[in-house]
Amino acid sequence: MNNLQEKVIRAMVEMYGFYSIEELSEMTEISVSSIKHSLNEIAGQIEEYGAKLLRVPRKGICMVATDQERESIVEQLDSYANSNPESFFYRKNYILDILFHFPADYTIQLFSEELCISRKIVQKDLDEIRKYLDKFHLKLIKRKNKGIKIYGHEFDFRQAIVDIRNKKYWKHAYIDKLPKDLDYRISKRAFTFFSDYYSEENIMKVQEYLARSEQELGVVFVDISFCRLTEYLLLSQSRIKEGKKITNTADRKMTRLDEAYQKAAKRILDQMFPDEEDMELEYQFLAAKIFVAKTCEADHQIMDDEWLELAEDYVFIVLQAMQKENTLHQKELEEQIAAFLRKVKIKHDYMLVEWDDLHKDIQQQLHSIYAVSLAYAIRLEEELGFVLTQDEIAWMTLLIHQAAIMGGSNKQGIFVTATDPYTSQYEAMKIENAAENLEIVKIVHFHEYDPEKSKGKLVISTVPLKQKKDNEIEITKHVSQLDLNKISSYIAEYEKKKQNQKVMDTVRKTFREELIVTDVAVFTKREAIQEASNLLIRQGCLTEDVTDKVFDLEEKRPTTIGSQIAMVHVYKESVKESGIAILRMKYPTRWSETSKVKLVFFLAINYEESKEILLLFKSLYSLIDNEEIMEEILEAEGSEKIYEILMKEIG
Q: How far apart are CA 170 and CA 114, in angstroms?
C-alpha cells in the first residue's frame, strides 16, 4: 500500500452507492489518471477483507462491503498510517508523544529536521493538533525562542493521553497467554494494549480494587466501562508517581456526588497510594468517572421532579412521532431517561471525555428514531445548557426503541452478556432479526449464567465462559455483522409499516419546491450550511445568515443520522417562517471524522405549539423510515421530482 492508495480507499470506505472516478478525484485531490492507474491494486486490497469493488459502465464504481468489513479496512488503513512517516497520523502521534512525555524546548525547526519534512508541513500539522487538543481543554502554544508546549490541567492531560494511546496502539497481534485470574471483561486485545505501558502486577491489582468497589456499590460495570476505569487508574498511578497530581478543578462545576461513590473512589486510591497526601481532588474526579460508568443493572429510579418532567416531555414527543404513544413501559422509560440525563449533567460538569461510538451502529440500525431523537434534543439542551453528543442521543434512541418494541414467538435461546440490560436487549434484537428460527426469550448476565440449566438449548455467549459447551456459539462482546452471519445466513429486513397520518397544512407547507436544490457543488460542511442558509433567506424563512451559529453547533455535535443524511436545524431565533431546505450534494461531503453526507435537510422552524412540532416530526420519521423513498430522493432527476416524491409520501 502507498499513500495514494490509502487516501483513495479511505474515501471509498466512507461512501455508499455508485460514484464516478472524477467525483473521487475531486474528493481526494488526486488526479483521475493516478486513480485509474491504481484501481486494480486498490480492488485487490479491498477484496482481502471480503469486500468487492464494482465497476459498471456509465454508472461508476461502488464498494460493496458490510459495516464490519469497512471497519476492518479502516483498522488496516490506520495501522498503515500510524507506521508511515509520510502520514499525518504518524507525525501527529510523534509530535504529541514528544510534547506530552518529553517536554523539552522543541521548535518547529527541530520537528522539521527529525521528521524530514518542511516547516510549512509541521506548521499545518500543529494547526490540526491544536484543534484536536481543544476537545480536551488543552492549549498548544508556540513560545518565542522556547519552542512549543501544551498547557492545561492534569486531568485533561490524562484524558488526552488515553485517547492518543487508544488510537495509536490498538494492536491486532494479541497476547495469547493471559494471567489466570484476569477479569473476563479485560479481553486479549485490551490486555495486550495495557501491557504496552503497565506491568502485569499493576494491572491485576487495579482490577482487584475495582472488583471490590463493585461489591461495595452493588453494581457490575459493563466490559468497556471496566476496561476504561482500569486504564484511567493505571495511568493515574504512573502520573502521580511522576509528581503529576490533580491540584485544581480547572473552573469545573464540581457537583457533589452520592456519598457511596466518594467512599469507593477514596478506598481505591488509598490502597494504591497509602502514603500520599492531598488527594481530595483525585478522589472526586475518580468518583465522577465511577458514577457515569455504565453498569449491567438498570439505572436506579430518580425522584427529582425537574429531571422527570424534562424526560416526560421529551419521551412524549418522540413516541408520538413514532406513533407509539401507548407504549406499555413509558413510565419506566421516562425514569430511565431522567436518570441518564442526570449522569450526562455530571459528565458535563466534570468535563469527562467519554466515548463508545454507539451512534455509528444506532444510525445504521435505527436511523429514523435517531433522527427524531436528534431533532427534538434541542428541548433538552435548552434546559441542560449544553449540547448533547451523538453517543448520548444514540443511547436515548436505544432506550426509546427498547420500550417501544414488542415480543414474538415461543422458540427459545439464551443470550449471555456482560453489558447493561438496555444494550443487551438491543443486541438481542439484532440477533432476532438475523435468525429466522430463533427468538431470544431470556437475557442472561454473566453472573446469572448456569451451564447446567442451558443443556439442550442454543447459547450465544458474548464473554469467555470457563467451560465452553458444544451447544454454545461464542461471539464478540458487541454483536457485529460477522456475528449475525454465524447465527443466520441473512438479515431479515425490518417489516415496513405504512404510516397513515394526517399532516396539517402548516406543516406540509414547510416542504416547498423552491427550497429543494440538487447537484450542489460544495466540498465542505460549512459551504453546505452556507448554501442552505442563503436559500432559506431568499425564500423568506430566515431573517439573517445563521451559518456561524449552525456550524458551531455542528462542530460540537454533528447532525448526521446515517445513510449519508444530515438533519441540520435551527428553531425560533432568526426564523421568520417555517421551512425545510433540502440540499442534495453532487459529491458526498465530509460531515464529521467518521461520516460523509450526500443529502441535507435544513429545518428552520418557528412553530410555537407542540402539536405542530409533533406533526412535523411524524412526517420526518415516516419519510426517513422509508428506505425506498430515501433512495428515490437520492436518485431523482431534479428538485421538481423530489418535491413530487415528498408530497406523495407526506400525503
A: 25
Nearest of 287, 300, 258 to residue 421 by alpha carbon: 300
Give the three-state DSSP class for 345. helix
Q: Which tops the pLDDT comparison, 482 or 350?
A: 350
In the chain, helix, strand, coil percent, each to 5? Answer: 55, 10, 35
Q: Residue 133, Cβ neighbours under 10 Å: how many?
A: 19
Cell match 437475557: residue?
Answer: 443
Are the CB atoms for 121 and 85 separated by under 8 Å? no
Cα–Cα dist 227/207, whole Å: 9
3-state secondary structure 1-52: CCHHHHHHHHHHHCCCCCECHHHHHHHHCCCHHHHHHHHHHHHHHHHCCCCE
Rounded Cα distance, 189 and 171, in Å: 7
Cell of 161: 493521553
Q: What pLDDT, in 10s, does the model give residues 58-113?
A: 788 888 887 778 878 887 887 777 777 778 888 888 899 889 887 678 888 888 88
Contact 550, 581 (CB under 8 A): no
Q: How high is the pLDDT of residue 90?
A: 85
Averaged pLDDT for residues 206-222: 92
Give this prediction's pTM: 0.72
Residue 307: other Cβ atoms inside 10 A = 20
CA 211 to each of CA 182, 214, 218, 227, 283: distance values in angstroms, whole numbers, following the listed order: 11, 5, 10, 12, 17
List CB contacts of 249: < 8 A, sequence separation 6 or more.
Answer: 281
Q: How far is Cα of residue 547 from the mean position of the Cα atoms in its chain?
A: 24
**What's the rounded Cα separation, in Å, for the pair 397 and 375?**
12
Q: Using one digit for the tens of pLDDT, what is the confidence trace for 594-640?
A: 778 888 989 887 766 556 666 777 777 778 888 888 888 888 888 88
What does the alpha-carbon distance between residue 561 and residue 372 come to, in Å, rounded to a whole number? 10
Cβ contacts of residue 79 below 8 Å, gap of 6+?
172
CA distance 185 to 566: 36
Q: Cell 399532516 maps to which residue?
A: 503
For residues 220 and 213, the answer to whether their CB atoms sit within 8 Å is no
User: Helix (H, G, I), strand (E, B), or coil: what is residue 473?
Assistant: strand
**583 SS3 class:** strand
